[in-house]
Amino acid sequence: MNRQALEGYEKALGKEHPDTLTSVGNLASVLRDQGRYKEAEEINRRALEGRGKAMGKEHPDTLTSVNNLASVLGYQGKYEEAEEMNQRALEGREKALGEEHPSTLTSVSNLALVLQDQGKYKEAEQINRRALEGYKKALGKEHPDTLTSVDNLALVLGYQGKYEEAEQINRRALEGREKALGKEHPDTLTSVSNLALVLVYQGKYKEAEQINQRALEGIEKALGKEHPSTLTSVSNLALVLRD
User: Fold this and answer.
1) Nearest to 197 by CA among 180, 215, 221
2) Are 55 and 20 in contact (CB under 8 A)?
3) Predicted confidence (pLDDT) per residue in 59-75, tens digit
4) What are the residue ranges of helices labelled H in the chain?
5) What are the structural domains of the chain?
6) pTM, full prediction
7) pLDDT tier, 14 (very low <50, low <70, confident <90, very high otherwise)
């Protein structure tokens, strides 16, 4: 459907029209969600270049493209470039939208994730706490974006060995996502996987195995056997079986 929309926009409005570039960005997002990161990166770069030219580097839509490109770079392990892009998006959104705007908080969360991926856990924890407080204030405790922030904070706490707090927060995120999104939603299954991981860290292997099995079955059903998230779940289950 995105490809059909993009083709129509290009024909009717031209390749550089803002609506065409929105369609480009949408296609890149769905490719990213399927784990097709290289293709998503190429299309995100097209969207970013076009929006920068048409709207300027500081326009909110341009900064969205910066954020999206940073995300897909992070998924490919290109952490330094992803961090630079996230910093650019965050500074631009703080200036244009303010520090408490949900889009700004998305940039805060994304920066925390790429810092976490580089092992900068203390800094990532501080930034995650900022994002979480902002989301609770702006969107409420049960909003999906808030719960994503809860999950992110739990993950970085686990990496630092703060297992009991991480488990409590993971259970909160999982309960909220089950209620808001349902038990089979991919974001809910991410919370399931994260809870299993922190249980492993604490040596609670039997419960971790059961929860990993639930995560794997759900992710295979939702995303397919070859999706990167499915393969991560397979690896996680193998680790707990080994332990």
Assistant:
1) 215
2) no
3) 999 999 999 999 999 99
4) 2-13, 18-33, 37-55, 60-75, 79-97, 102-117, 121-139, 144-159, 163-181, 186-201, 205-223, 228-242
5) 1-118 (1.25.40.10), 127-243 (1.25.40.10)
6) 0.79
7) very high
